[in-house]
């Protein structure tokens, strides 16, 4: 079950990678930074004054050390209207699934089911035609055209979750919480779509 769940998510990530890595969508020098979610809470996305790390000229702060032994890598750059699913990379997944008391395999399979349901609906239901789907294991997320953007999010302590963004809108996030249903309710609420 462990390998099957991870392979299933790897296929989703591969499809999402192509959707979120488009030429011409590089944000360049980022202006606003979202702090590490472990130390500030899941809804706090306000830049701090004290830089302790940098990426492409932007400041990134960490208030507490990361507890996990594996660290995510790379950067995903996005713009426009989208839902981005955050997934662990293979090394992080291996670390999470090595804990015998953790039910990561069941949660992982539930999340994969929800992602697939959402992706299928975005492709087939007309009211979602302008909302893109993406999935990534990348550590840094650069959102070029959200409110106050470009925005850099360091999600090293976030293994699972999603980010909703639209041009000129504040982003909406849910970190380290998953369910097996699709995420259309969250999309409808964020974009003001009638179900």
State the total count of DSSP E strands.
10
Number of helices: 5
- Give the ordered list of helices and strands: HEHEEEEHHEEEEEH
User: How would you classify the quaternary structure?
Assistant: single chain
Q: Outline the biggest β-sheet.
A: 4 strands, mixed
Which structural category fits the helices and strands?
alpha/beta
Coarse shape: globular
- Biggest β-sheet: strands ordered side by side in the sheet: 1-8-7-4
- Share of β-strand residues: 15-25%
* Rounded mean pLDDT score: 73
Helix content: 25-40%
Low-confidence stretches: 1-63
The termini sit apart by: 35 Å
* Tally of discrete structural domains: 1
Folded structure, characterized:
By secondary structure, the protein is an alpha/beta fold. The protein has one domain. A four-stranded mixed sheet has the order 1-8-7-4, with no helix packed on it. It has a four-stranded mixed sheet with strand order 6-5-9-10. A hairpin with a 6-residue loop joins strand 9 and strand 10. Helix 1 packs parallel to helix 4.
């Amino acid at each position: 079950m462990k390998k099957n769940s991870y392979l299933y998510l790897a296929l989703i990530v591969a499809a999402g990678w192509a959707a979120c890595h488009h030429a011409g969508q590089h944000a360049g020098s980022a202006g606003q930074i979202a702090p590490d979610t472990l130390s500030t809470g899941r809804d706090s996305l306000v830049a701090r004054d004290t830089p302790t790390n940098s990426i492409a000229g932007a400041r990134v702060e960490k208030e507490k050390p990361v507890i996990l032994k594996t660290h995510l890598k790379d950067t995903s750059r996005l713009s426009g209207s989208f839902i981005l699913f955050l997934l662990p990379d293979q090394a992080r997944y291996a670390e999470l699934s090595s804990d015998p008391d953790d039910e990561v395999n069941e949660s992982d399979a539930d999340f994969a089911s929800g992602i697939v349901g959402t992706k299928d609906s975005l492709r087939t239901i007309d009211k979602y035609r302008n909302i893109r789907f993406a999935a990534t294991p990348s550590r840094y997320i650069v959102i070029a055209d959200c409110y106050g953007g470009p925005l850099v999010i360091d999600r090293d302590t976030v293994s699972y979750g999603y980010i909703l963004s639209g041009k000129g809108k504040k982003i909406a996030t849910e970190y380290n919480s998953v369910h097996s249903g699709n995420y259309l309710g969250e999309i409808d609420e964020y974009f003001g779509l009638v179900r």
